[in-house]
Structure prediction request, 95 residues.
Amino acid sequence: MGHSHHFHVDRGDHSITVNIGPGRDGEIELLVDGKVVAYQKEHGRGMSTLAAELPGEPARPLLVRVREPHLVPTRPRCTLEMDGVEQPMPERALV
Prediction:
């Protein structure tokens, strides 16, 4: 059985968090400021994409990509794309 993974980044006054459930096909939650704004019940190997917006006037769209390796059993990777820039989201340990 796999472990859950958690990724987090702050953008301005907003926090963006991605929680990935255990196993290779666990659920994915995308939270903005602590509220679930996108959810995918299952994911498999390859890439999953979740879309949301940062609140504000105007709202700012964002995409989160979760990459599950196909061949090698390694940790998933998570990237945030916003304002035309893609950046890795660091994984964080929860205690």
Remarks:
- Strands lie at 5-11, 14-20, 28-32, 35-40, 46-54, 60-68, 77-82, 85-88.
- The mean pLDDT is 87.
